[in-house]
UniProtKB/TrEMBL annotation:
<dbReference type="InterPro" id="IPR052913">
    <property type="entry name" value="Glycopeptide_resist_protein"/>
</dbReference>
<dbReference type="InterPro" id="IPR007391">
    <property type="entry name" value="Vancomycin_resist_VanW"/>
</dbReference>
<dbReference type="Pfam" id="PF04294">
    <property type="entry name" value="VanW"/>
</dbReference>
<protein>
    <submittedName>
        <fullName>VanW family protein</fullName>
    </submittedName>
</protein>
<feature type="domain" description="YoaR-like putative peptidoglycan binding">
    <location>
        <begin position="232"/>
        <end position="348"/>
    </location>
</feature>
<feature type="transmembrane region" description="Helical">
    <location>
        <begin position="40"/>
        <end position="63"/>
    </location>
</feature>
<keyword id="KW-0812">Transmembrane</keyword>
<dbReference type="InterPro" id="IPR022029">
    <property type="entry name" value="YoaR-like_PG-bd"/>
</dbReference>
<dbReference type="Pfam" id="PF12229">
    <property type="entry name" value="PG_binding_4"/>
</dbReference>
<keyword id="KW-0472">Membrane</keyword>
<keyword id="KW-1133">Transmembrane helix</keyword>
Amino acid sequence: MTQPPSQFTDEAQTVQFARVGRPAEPDVPEPAPRHGRKRIFLAGGITAAVLVAVGGSAAYGYAGEVPRGTTVLGVELGAKSEADAATALRAGLSGQAERLSAALPVRLGERVVEIDPADVGLAVDVDATVAAAAASGGGPFSRIFGSRQVAPVVTVDAAKAEEVLRGALGKDAQAMKMPAVTFSGTTPKAVHPKPGKGIDAEKSAQALRDGWLGIHPVPVPLVEVHPATSAEQVDKLVADLARPAVAAPVTVTTERGTVTVPPAAIAKSLVLTADKTGRINPRVDEKKLRAALAGPLGTVEVAAKDATMALKAGKPTVVPGVDGHRLDTGKLSTDLLAVLPKADGRTVAGTMTTAKPKVTAEAVAKLGVKEKVSTFTTQFSGGLSSARSQNIVLVSKEAKGAFVMPGATFSLNTHTGERSYPQGYKDAPTIVGGKLVPGAGGGVSQFVTTLFNATYYAGLEDVEHKPHSYYFSRYPAVIESTIYPPHLDFRFRNNTPYGVLIDTSYTSSSITVSIWSTKIYDSVKTEWGPRRNVTQPQTKYLEPGPDCLETSGLPGFSQDAWRIFRKDGKETKREKFSWTYQAEPRFICAKPPA
């Protein structure tokens, strides 16, 4: 151990020299020559001087927490405290921002791609790097005289790196064939897995850490990737779960009655597919289960009714919603998994819940349905005894009281459902293939035209309508609409912040539609352009019979119409509608003349 310099004079050891060629006389020590003493003291002085220098340099070398001569990425950190070194390193890195953010070439198999370091979380951990630099010094001499370059501590987001590299792998990737159990009807089928070629998250992250600031491109290894579920496990899943699951129905008991879950519904809702790692976690999909049980659930469930608005004594009145009853299919989906592997005891206790209306009375009351904003009437002939008139009245009753929330789109086909004989509609003339033929619901187009005009003059947004192929004088030209489900519908959007209530009424010769809401515009009116490109009807002969309907023929023409909005005394908007009517032939139910 090196002693402090002060001890060299006070506690110097005795040094003895033996005279060469003469016996030693141990009892009488011979004084050393004067020049010998001088050498002794000179040697001691040199040693002391060296040790003093060493001690002073040691203090110099240990100044600060980071050894002198230490650099990281060219940034001098030596002789600094760790806090000062961290500040210096951050400043130095900011000066190298362009280098550190430059695209990084990466070799993936046979391809070289470039990735953004920020996309994979590549960064220098300043605090960890400074700590490593502070611990990098060796002995005192190395701390005094040495210089060292300390590698930075690099961090990377392994999950992001895997995602980016997997996407960049492109055609060099070989996807794993994922295991699964599928159903053909109620027959389970095993899908065995196969390995693929891809990215190992940890190995890829390490390669990026090691190579980011080194030699490019960075080689990232491709590895064989195996799904987490083996072929043997798939076969066991078929034997233990899939096959017994569809061997018999499951009975669900509730306080409102029982529901039978048939094997077909089980097969449709039992999910035995793998996640991205290839692991199969059996589950019953609630949405698929509910869809498969749409019929059976009707015996125990009652749908909630939303609050709405209705006219009572000629005034808009809020109609409160009504609670419903609903089977908790979320809980049932979980409970089914416990009984599906069983051959016996396939009964589950179902839980009924209260289904609350989505729209409350309080919400409806705030929607501003307070006044009639538009009304439109069209005339029909034949009285209420004709099939056509009865169809018009029937569809008007189905649409009466429809309530449209702000932002919602109303579809007449969706609202009324199928319009056919079972619903009470009768045969009346309809246009099919350019000629009039009897069809269920003939005449409904007159109601559609009336409803279209009511929403049109209320200023509501037109979403879908189609004028007739031929012009009928009972309708306003261009501003009218036909309907033919499922190909043609009438739809409008409530593009106001207020609720919209549809009201209908009829007489023996007319149909009226009124829209109740809050009035936005001073007026909505129509301006028509002149008719142009007028064409005359041709005469056509049809095979005589009960389905043949004669017509007198109508001219065809093109015409434009503008919907004009006025508010606060000014025109605020105008919309153009255009249509071309074909000339309706003069149909004669007879054989052509010779």
